[in-house]
Design brief:
The complex is a heterodimer of chains A (309) and B (105). Chain A folds into two domains: 199 residues, Urease metallochaperone UreE, N-terminal domain (HSP40/DNAj peptide-binding domain, Sandwich); 93 residues, Sandwich (HSP40/DNAj peptide-binding domain). Chain A is built from seven helices and eleven strands. In chain A, the strands form four sheets. Chain A has a four-stranded mixed beta sheet. A three-stranded mixed beta sheet of chain A has the order 1-5-4. In chain A, strands 2-3 form a two-stranded antiparallel sheet. In chain A, helix 2 packs antiparallel against helix 3. The radius of gyration of chain B is 17 Å and the shape is globular. Chain B has one domain: Multidrug-efflux Transporter Regulator, Chain: A, Domain 2. Classes of the chains: A alpha+beta (309), B mainly alpha (105). Chains A and B meet through helix 2, strand 3 and strand 4 of A and strand 1, strand 2, helix 3 and helix 4 of B.
Chain lengths: 309, 105
């Protein structure tokens, strides 16, 4: 079990003031902001920093966390209370699919407690979090169990972590940055008020083959020089199964072939673009070298003729 | 621990949020949504009661909220930061689509 030391993540002392915590957060948020950071693990670091800040900036959450942390330093053998394992995170619950919801956004802990006394009727706060899904889930739709962790209170009013699992349908056609709204899954209401809602922001895990822009997918399609120059019919894998595509004659490297409607489904559905990547056979045998020599001899060609002297 | 089946709706053109729902989703008041529209962080037309917001608006509103709360940014500054952030993301997506490793350049 990995215990996350939020104080260490922010680089502050255990007794740090709210000001210290805020300043440390702001510095790190700039350092690891995914829009600007060049650090390889910026996104993960940013998540940790956000998570640590969401907890430590809030007196109640900080107290709940300090209680847990005390268990770690006192005994050395940390026995976590139920519902606490590897920090706060979503987790895919289907067997063999552990990574499906491995990402966590601490925003679950965000938001402010609504002011008001016990006899006030109030709707619970809405919460939001981000989940990472596979592109395939957006293409075909999927059912996913996600575990959520939040701060609750025990019978003595002490804050404690509680966990619950939701079985959520990911609709086909969902795009990156869209939100799924789960009615009634936010904070409980008070005095008979309605529960808040939970908003899950969709993010895609990087796909080994496809790159995504909105509803459109892009995929590199390697072709031999003669296929690109003479034209050819080649077989290309697509999300809906392999298709035969015609590579027009005199295609240049980087030419895009559009397969209409074969991107992320929707109205209208996205397109799949095959980006031609001309791959030259290596000249690593005498036969190959001779073939290149023949080409040089038979086809007068100066790629630098437009450069001038 | 029991598993709960829940109804999920996609925030989009079919099921948009109204101003009150957008405010609640961000832990804010409806007057704050009016301010967002006024500075142009999110767009809306017609009377506030008819305003409808999609996922993109929710994303921007949440980001504006955290810039305000965590960085003491004014809404005007938040608007500028969000515009620049959007442009960076758009360009990075373009580069990725072209097969460029964004972190290597």
């Amino acid at each position: 079990m990995e215990f996350k030391d939020y104080y260490a993540i922010l680089g502050v002392e255990r007794g740090a003031s709210d000001d210290d915590i805020r300043h440390a957060y702001r510095k790190l948020a700039r350092k690891y902001h995914p829009d600007v950071s060049k650090e390889a693990d910026a996104e993960q670091r940013m998540r940790d920093v956000n998570e640590a800040y969401q907890v430590l900036k809030d007196a109640e959450k900080r107290a709940a966390y300090d209680n847990l942390a005390a268990g770690v330093s006192a005994g050395g053998d940390f026995r976590p209370p139920p519902g606490w394992d590897s920090g706060f995170e979503f987790r895919g619950a289907s067997p063999g699919d552990d990574a499906a919801f491995s990402e966590f956004f601490s925003s679950l802990f965000g938001g402010r407690r609504r002011p008001g006394g016990a006899h006030m009727r109030a709707r619970g706060e809405d919460h939001h979090a981000a989940i990472e899904i596979d592109l395939e889930d957006a293409l075909h739709g999927a059912m996913r169990d996600i575990s959520l962790r939040s701060i609750g209170h025990d019978e003595r009013g002490q804050p404690r972590l509680q966990e619950r699992t939701l079985n959520v349908r990911i609709p086909a056609g969902v795009r990156e940055g869209q939100f799924i709204r789960l009615a009634g899954q936010g904070m409980p209401g008070m005095g008979g008020g309605e529960n808040g809602d939970l908003y899950l922001e969709i993010r895609f895990k990087p796909h080994p083959r496809y790159r995504v822009e909105g509803r459109d997918l892009y995929m590199s399609l390697p072709v031999a020089p003669w296929e690109a120059m003479l034209g050819a019919s080649v077989r290309a894998p697509t999300p809906g199964g392999p298709v035969d595509v015609t590579v027009p004659a005199n295609s240049r490297n980087g030419r895009k072939l559009r397969l209409k409607g074969r991107g992320i489904p929707g109205d209208p559905a996205g397109d799949l673009y095959l980006v031609l990547e001309v791959v030259w056979p290596p000249a690593d045998t005498e036969k190959a070298r001779q073939a290149y020599r023949n080409l040089a001899q038979e086809v007068p060609f100066d790629p630098r003729r437009n450069l001038g002297d | 621990m029991k598993t709960v089946a829940v109804t999920a709706t996609l925030v989009g053109s079919e099921k948009p949020l109204d101003a009150g729902e957008l405010a609640r989703a961000c832990g804010a008041e409806e007057a704050w949504v009016l301010q967002l529209v006024k500075v142009g962080i999110i767009e809306a037309s017609g009377r506030p009661a008819d305003w409808r917001f999609d996922s993109g608006a929710l994303q921007r509103a949440l980001a504006a909220r955290s810039l305000q709360r965590d960085f003491d940014a004014s809404l005007d500054a938040a608007a500028l930061i969000l515009d620049m952030s959007n442009e960076i993301r758009r360009l990075k997506t373009k580069l990725r689509v072209l097969g460029v490793d964004v972190n290597a350049i």
